[in-house]
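Annex B. Sample input.
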Amino acid sequence: MTEPKKRLPNGMGIAFGMGFGFILGWLFDEVVWGLAIGILIGTWVDYFAQRRR
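Annex B, continued. Sample output.
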């Protein structure tokens, strides 16, 4: 039996992006911008994770 490729569940990229963006924003004292950038990165990661299968 062939096992399916392991990939991120839907929305995991966004959660990761928000965490990443929050840390970035906290470092630069711009949490709102950090979250916005994090959500962008997260949707991008999710999109490519879905395309790659």
